[in-house]
């Protein structure tokens, strides 16, 4: 009986290792991003900010560029500021 338990344990371990090899399990300790914003790197925060800015402006790259320009100039642009700049472009 004891020998059977050893085989069952070994078989279970083999299944676990096979599952890990084919990506069946997620190693939660290997997450790429820290979820606490206070612990994120500046690069991670920039990626999130750029993504949210693009989503807020409907993916309009001209509006995103205008928002980034205004932010870099030390201003606090509104959605309307960014869209107005796009509407006022020559050829529109």
How would you characterize this protein structure?
The protein is mostly helical. It folds into two domains: 1-28; 32-92, no CATH class. 61% of the residues lie in helices and 0% in strands. It has four helices and no strands. Helix 3 (61-72) crosses helix 4 (79-87). The model has no long low-confidence stretch (mean pLDDT 82).
What is this entry, summarized?
With 92 residues, the protein is an all-alpha fold. The longest helix has 20 residues, at 2-21.
How does the SSE layout of this entry go?
Elements: H1 2-21, H2 42-56, H3 61-72, H4 79-87
Helix pairs in contact: 3-4
Beta strand %:
under 5%
Largest sheet: none
* Low-pLDDT ranges: none
Question: Helical element count?
Answer: 4
Secondary-structure content class: mainly alpha
The overall number of domains is 2
Instruction: Give the H and E element order.
Output: HHHH
The radius of gyration computed from the alpha-carbon positions, rounded to a whole number of angstroms, is 25 Å
Please tell me the overall pLDDT. 82
User: Helical percent range?
Assistant: 55-70%
Question: Between the first and last Cα atoms, what is the distance in angstroms?
Answer: 83 Å
């Amino acid at each position: 009986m004891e020998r059977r338990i050893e085989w069952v344990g070994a078989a279970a371990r083999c299944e676990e290792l096979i599952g890990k090899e084919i990506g069946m399990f997620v190693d939660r300790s290997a997450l790429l991003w820290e979820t606490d914003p206070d612990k994120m790197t500046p690069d991670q925060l920039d990626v999130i900010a750029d993504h949210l800015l693009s989503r807020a402006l409907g993916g309009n790259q001209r509006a995103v560029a205008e928002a980034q320009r205004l932010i870099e100039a030390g201003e606090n642009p509104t959605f309307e500021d960014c869209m107005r700049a796009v509407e006022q472009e020559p050829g529109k």
